[in-house]
Amino acid sequence: MPDFGPDVWSYAVLAVTLLVAAATDVRRGKIYNWITYPAALIGLAGHAITGGLWGSPERLGLAGALGGLLVGFGPLLLAWLAGGIGGGDAKIMAAVGALTGWQFALSALFYGLAVAMVMAVAIMLRKRIVRDTFGRIWRFFLLWAGRAKPDAPTTQQSPTVPFGLALCIGAAVTLTLTCIFGPSDKLFLLGI
Fold it and tell me: Residue 58: is it exposed, middle or buried by C-beta count within 10 angstroms (0-12/13-18/19+)?
């Protein structure tokens, strides 16, 4: 059995947060602030209490929790500002980072994006719109590369992927790997 270290409480909070967020994303298409904000605050406060300001090799500390929050939230904030995802998707990754640190958040984001890609392809295959979708994307990039102002590569009829669910699954994969192999200072990306 792996030794989870002194911050095992954060994995328990993360597991509950992911289950609730995934359920609301599937049922209502939203991840609510009442899920994300408390989880992020618990992560920041809990790591500050248990690890102090800077933490230690065994403890994350407030600085490590803030770093995780920024790594989880930053890239998805940009995607939200561009109109590609919902705000709840960015906030759930902020909570993941605050609870677990930057390496876990980056790994969860990687796996979440991989899950979202698989989900998108499955939806396109099921709806038989692969050719149309890739055609619109190809035209978008051709116009963009030619410095023209392209229309968005999506339409009103374009299906959506429950991206919050994909992020929750990505975090759950990382959490499962952590439970099997224990916390690591290495990322669980591509076997690193």
Answer: exposed
Please identify which residue in the block is written with the tokens 């099997």.
Answer: 180
Q: Which residues have CB under 8 Å from 191's CB, separation 6+?
A: none
pLDDT-above-70 percentage for the chain: 85
- Using 50, 70 and 90 to split pLDDT, how confident is the model at 94? very high
The rounded distance, in Å, linking the Cα atoms of 92 and 32 is 9
Q: By CB neighbour count within 10 A (0-12 exposed, 13-18 middle, 19+ buried), where does 120 fall? A: middle
Going 32 to 37 to 38 to 44, the CA torsion angle's sign is positive
CA separation for the pair 121, 182 (Å, rounded): 32
Sign of CA dihedral 120, 126, 132, 134: positive
Q: Delimit the domains of the chain by residue range.
A: 8-181
Instruction: Give the contacts of 116 (CB within 8 A, at least 6 positions apart).
Output: 161, 163, 166, 167
- Report whether 93 contacts 73 (CB < 8 A): yes
